[in-house]
Design a protein that fits this description.
Blueprint lengths: L11 E4 L2 E4 L20 E6 L15 E2 L17 E8 L12 H7 L21 H9 L8 E4 L8 E3 L2 E2 H4 L4 E3 L2 E2 L6 H9 L4 H14 L8 H8 L4 H31 L15 H17 L5 E5 L8 E2 L4 E4 H5 L5 H26 L2 E2 L2 E2 L4 E6 L15 E4 L10 E10 H11 L20
Parallel strand pairs: 3-11, 3-16, 5-18, 6-11
Antiparallel strand pairs: 1-2, 4-18, 5-17, 7-8, 9-10, 12-13, 14-15, 16-17
Helix pairs in contact: 4-8, 8-10
Amino acid sequence: MSFQQPLSRRTVLKGLGISMALPWLESVPTFAAAGAASPPRRLVGIFVPNGVHMPDWTPKSEGFGFQLPYILEPLSPVQDDLLVISGLTHDKGRANGDGPGDHARSASVFLTGAQPRKTAGADIRSGMSVDQKAAQAVGHLTKFPSIQLGCEGGRSAGNCDSGYSCAYSSNISWASETQPLAKEINPRLAFERLFTNKNTSEADRSRAQREALKKSLLDFVAADAQKLQSQLGRNDQRKLDEYLTGVREIERRIERAEKESLADSPVVDYKSPTGIPSDYGEHIRLMCDMTVLAFQTDVTRISTIMFADAGSNRSYRLIDVPEGHHDLSHHGGDPVKHAKIRQINRFHVTQLSYLVQKLKSIPEGEGTLLDHCMVVYGSGLSDGNRHNHDDLPLLVLGRGGGTIDTGRHFRVAPETPMCNLFLSILDRMGVAADYIGDSTDRLAGLTV
């Protein structure tokens, strides 16, 4: 490929089956020069199951300068980029006459604000999620309208919670009232999707050749990368080298995970998919890396990540908590279980901090990638024992292109719909919407 034509945001490095978009570079016309007022805004929705231990989650003071409680302490490096919102409610996560099934409802309602139809059959029904409302409006501007990632496979059918289909428990992204979007849980497949072109046969050939020759994806775009370097200034040469080095490091981590997965697999008929790390923390971090790469190269502006499925009973031996998460969430007031739950909650927040710090480390325009993001993190339940859907644990990280005043904790009035926040987020994504889910108004307090 020749780079004699002027560089643009859509310039890519190409090789057999490979199409690698570029990060933000000074030598490439800026978003403003391309007709945009500023870098695009991005949205990430992150779900954690089973609620949290609220006494160690909620800051004791409101406003700026609050002290981070125990669970949120891992966010200290990015506290200035953090907004803690207390008091939001998902009324449609409540039974409202449908009986038990709070875990399934907590996931399906998380980004939709819609009451799911209680069924274990094929007639599922919820609502379009906020990420897909945004994707519907701006997704045509990027290679992928959105990406959906996760760390537990789950099932798409059958009864997973008191008569609710597994589709509700294992998905937070809904393209329509009846169409949940399945998440990718294999880091290798997510990585390949980001960097291979849409010619499936060519992409398959590329992967087969790389595996046979034990070559890196970067080996296939080396010639293009070398040509591009000659057209870049010194700063951009360094940035491109850092970007390619980062991609290769993620590729190596995926390769290590695949080897570990094969080595740890028991000799049984069922074999776990390759590329799934045995280290759960590394699995989450790799999926966070996929989101960062996707945003950095502008192949999508919208992502969702499920750290685990609703009602997950995963054990956390890696942090000395061998019991199942769901079992512990039914703590019955037991202080020993409380202590273990908060350890799990802190572990999840530690992975969130990894994502946010990576976003913050990448320059874009006059700020950082994080400055143009809105990372929404939380659970559809508050206390896992009570199964309550009010006063939900909810964080927003990133300034949304300068439209959100972070570094604060603020509390909203009781029963304020979480969908009011979503409506405000859609405004910031440039999406015209009169409502989403059970929203009643825009959320006041995102700026001061």
